[in-house]
Amino acid sequence: MKPGSMFFESIEVRLKTGPDIYDITPKLGRLIKEVNIENGSLCATIIGSTGSITTIEFEPGVVEDLKQAVNRLAPPGMEYEHEKAWHDGNGHSHVQAALLGPSITLPIRNGQLKLGTWQQVVAINHDNRARTRSIEVTITGTHKS
Q1: Does CATH place domain 4-143 in 2.40.30.260?
Q2: CA-CA distance, 111 to 120, in Å (whole number)?
Q3: Contact assessment for residue 15 and residue 122, using Cβ atoms and an 8 Å cutoff
Q4: Other C-beta atoms within 10 Å of 121: how many?
Q5: CB-based contact 112:51 (threshold 8 Å)
Q6: Where are the alpha helices (DSSP H) in 1-128?
Q7: Rounded to an integer, what distance in angstroms lies between the CA atom of residue 109 and that of residue 142?
Q8: What is the C-alpha separation between 53 and 89, in angstroms, rounded?
Q9: Number of neighbouring beta carbons within 10 Å of residue 123
Q10: Residue 31: helix, strand or coil by DSSP?
Q11: pLDDT tens track for 4-60
Q12: How far, in Å, CA of 104 to CA of 137, rounded?
């Protein structure tokens, strides 16, 4: 078995008022190539309690469907306990982000993320204002020969 390595990197994405969905797959792919990992895992975590990461088919129809779905699950404009305490209008943002989750771990095989043909990794801003989101990426695995 080859010895393994671990790498850490931050990427930033600018996102509009939520829900806004951004395809980070190309950025993650570039990082894998830069660190020359052949087989292993990539973990990506979005920083902040109103952001999430998941996978979807990144095409306009699915993007719009996901936006509508998260707004149905935790609609803006409802009464949230968070609003009573902070009066910042983003109680729904925290709930939406918690439902989807802040991180994802994906396999790396043959120097690439192992994803389905129509599967991309996306970062989502759920907040009621535009945000620049930091995504912490940890890559572990074996190097290419």
Answers
A1: no
A2: 16
A3: no
A4: 24
A5: no
A6: 25-35, 60-73, 81-86, 91-100
A7: 10
A8: 22
A9: 24
A10: helix
A11: 899 999 999 999 999 999 999 999 999 999 999 999 999 999 999 999 999 999 999
A12: 10
Q: Where are the domains of the chain?
A: 4-143
Provide the whole-model pTM: 0.94
Q: Which two tokens stand for residue 81?
A: 């306990």
Answer left, alpha or beta for residue 141, where phi above 0 means left and psi between -120 and 50 means alpha.
Answer: left
Amino acid occupying residue 137 = V
- Mean pLDDT score, 60-83: 95
Sign of CA dihedral 105, 111, 115, 120: positive
User: Token match 């043909």: residue?
Assistant: 117
Whose tokens are 């087989």? That residue is: 39
Instruction: Quote the DSSP letter at residue 50.
Output: T
Tokens of 1: 């078995």
Q: Structure tokens of 53?
A: 């990461």
d(Cα 109, Cα 20) in Å, to the nearest integer? 29
- Both tokens of 3, joined, read 């010895």
State the amino acid at position 113 in one-letter form. L
- Residues 109, 113, 119, 124, CA torsion sign: positive
* Three-state secondary structure call for residue 38: strand
